[in-house]
Amino acid sequence: MESYTRYERARIIGARALQISMGAPVLVKTPKTEPLEIALEEYDQDMIPITVKRK
């Protein structure tokens, strides 16, 4: 997993939680129902399909 700053991590997880809340498919098997908790679990398992471009 790439090393992200805490700001990048927050942005990635927040964006993914928004996607999940809008109906995007969940990429991990989990009993959780809260979009933020699901996004955190996806992040921990390195499953979030979001990349960061740096200059």
Automatic annotation (TrEMBL):
Keywords: DNA-directed RNA polymerase, Nucleotidyltransferase, Transcription, Transferase. The lineage of its organism: Archaea, Methanobacteriati, Methanobacteriota, Stenosarchaea group, Methanomicrobia. Its EC number is 2.7.7.6. SMART domains: RNA_pol_Rpb6. The keyword Amino-acid biosynthesis does not apply. It is an enzyme of class 2 (transferase). It holds the Pfam family RNA_pol_Rpb6. One of its GO terms (cellular component) is DNA-directed RNA polymerase complex. Gene3D superfamilies: 3.90.940.10. It comes from the Archaea. It comes from Methanoculleus submarinus. GO terms for molecular function: DNA binding; DNA-directed RNA polymerase activity. This is DNA-directed RNA polymerase subunit K. InterPro entries: DNA-dir_RNA_polK_14-18kDa_CS, Pol_omega/Rpo6/RPB6, RPB6/omega-like_sf, Rpo6/Rpb6.
